């Protein structure tokens, strides 16, 4: 039959790591990339450079693949429907993916199931945003319904003077979602993987640390989470994956309140930054399981290899030669695992990550943080 070809739309580091996970399984990856030198295009052999919003480009690419999946959620939904009408396997499909593309659609769907979400409303003007906040209490969170990521398209509005900011430069068809401000104590991430045949697995729940809207660190399992709490988060992720008919990885980002209850913040339907720990910390990585799922292969064991795994993102800093930095990082701590994404160093940009595993949480945290700091600044 020959090796299956998985077409990945988007050429970022997620596609790069998917490709690496597929090599041992004999899976061929074809890439539709934004440019010839983006992260995944540096390592994938079969690369098409083109616009993922152009129907002719996407259709021509997809029709030579056995299945199409994604590095990001920004491919227009109507274009994905057009692929399905041509017989292309799109996984996850547009009916599921729209819930990761559009926050309004996602909030309404989850609320209709009675799942824990913030109080919300779609607001059409600063005045409506102020009225919402007056009813729920200040501050409030405002989000664009589409296009936001890594803290972009999200505002904490403290008083009426800031109510106009979310409405500036709105793209056509984009709405503003107003949400109550949730006084959470930490953020959790529950990852599930589901195949077309309905098999599903859930990874240990992670705690994530965000700075300026960007994930900088994950600890797995989430410290202090009881077995009952962890199981409830995993069941929530599995329930959402089944209800939305997700194929592949589903990341459910959660906000945990002081009383330990959780609220769904965001959904992602592709490998996720909070699951990067699984490359070196789990029996089967999220990237391998995503490929297995989209090809409807039996899913792998998601359990952790060690009591603690910490993944720390390397954000662009003073050091520009990251490969040279490996000499110092790996000489000091040969047990660290490093993934570099082949991206140009820009301040605050995710250019790689460092993973440490072990039995002592404080020691594992220290090692991961030191390795990432060395790669960022050489200090």
Task: Write a structural description.
With 379 residues, the protein is of the alpha+beta class. The chain folds into three domains: 5-90, 3-Layer(aba) Sandwich (Rossmann fold), CATH 3.40.50.20; 119-180, 2-Layer Sandwich (Dna Ligase, domain 1); 186-377, 2-Layer Sandwich (D-amino Acid Aminotransferase, Chain A, domain 1), CATH 3.30.470. Helices cover 30% and strands 26% of the residues. The protein has eleven helices and 17 strands. The strands form three sheets. Strands 9, 10, 11, 12, 13, 14, 15, 16 and 17 form a nine-stranded antiparallel β-sheet that branches. Strands 3-2-1-4 form a four-stranded parallel β-sheet, with helices on both faces. Helix 3 (77-85) runs antiparallel to helix 4 (94-101) and helix 4 (94-101) crosses helix 5 (103-112). The N and C termini lie far apart (52 Å). The mean pLDDT is 96.
Can you describe this structure in just a few lines?
This protein is of the alpha+beta class and 379 residues long.
List keywords for this structure.
379 residues, alpha+beta, Rossmann fold, Dna Ligase, domain 1, D-amino Acid Aminotransferase, Chain A, domain 1, 3 domains
């Amino acid at each position: 039959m020959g090796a299956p070809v998985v077409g990945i739309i988007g050429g970022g580091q997620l596609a790069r790591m998917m490709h690496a996970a597929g090599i041992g399984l004999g899976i061929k990856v074809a890439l539709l990339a934004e440019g010839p030198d983006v992260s995944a295009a540096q390592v994938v052999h079969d690369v098409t450079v083109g616009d993922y919003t152009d129907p002719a480009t996407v259709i021509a690419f997809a029709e030579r693949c056995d299945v199409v999946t994604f590095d990001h959620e920004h491919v227009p939904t109507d274009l994905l429907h057009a692929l399905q009408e041509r017989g292309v396997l799109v996984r996850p499909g547009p009916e599921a993916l729209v819930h990761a593309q559009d926050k309004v659609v996602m909030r309404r769907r989850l609320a209709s199931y009675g799942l824990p979400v913030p109080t919300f409303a779609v607001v059409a003007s600063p005045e409506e945003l102020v009225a919402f906040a007056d009813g729920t209490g200040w501050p409030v969170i405002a989000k664009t319904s589409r296009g936001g990521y890594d803290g972009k398209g999200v505002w904490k509005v403290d008083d009426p003077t800031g109510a106009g900011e979310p409405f500036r430069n709105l793209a056509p068809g984009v709405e503003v979602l107003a949400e109550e401000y949730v006084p959470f104590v930490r953020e959790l991430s529950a990852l599930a993987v589901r195949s077309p045949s309905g098999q599903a697995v859930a990874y240990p729940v992670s705690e994530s640390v965000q700075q300026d809207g960007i994930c900088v660190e994950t600890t797995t399992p989430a410290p202090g989470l009881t077995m009952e709490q962890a199981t409830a988060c995993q069941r929530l992720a599995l329930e959402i994956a089944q209800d939305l008919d997700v194929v592949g990885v589903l990341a459910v980002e959660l906000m945990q309140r002081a009383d330990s209850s959780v609220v769904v913040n965001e959904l992602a339907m592709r490998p996720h930054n909070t699951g990067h720990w699984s490359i070196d910390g789990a029996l089967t990585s999220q990237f391998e399981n995503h490929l297995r799922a989209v090809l409807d292969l039996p899913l792998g064991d998601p359990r952790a290899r060690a009591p603690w795994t910490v993944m720390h993102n390397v954000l662009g800093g003073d050091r520009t030669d990251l490969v040279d930095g490996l000499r110092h990082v790996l000489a000091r701590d040969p047990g660290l695992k490093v993934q570099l994404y082949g991206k140009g160093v820009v301040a605050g940009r995710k250019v790689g990550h460092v993973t440490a595993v072990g039995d002592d949480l404080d020691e594992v945290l220290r090692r991961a943080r030191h390795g990432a700091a060395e790669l960022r600044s050489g200090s």
